[in-house]
User: What shape does this take?
Amino acid sequence: MNKEAEETKFVKEPEEETQQYILQKNKKTKVGVTILIAFLVLLIIGVIISNVFFTN
Assistant: This one.
């Protein structure tokens, strides 16, 4: 097996012809990342609010 050493990219541009990537820059990835960030923000807000209620 003789393969070229190709580094793994974090985000793949649509015009690139590589299979070594983690995320692809398309609509599905953007929606998924947006949902994930929104969930994390809500989680952080929930922790802050619960801290305020339980410490008083």
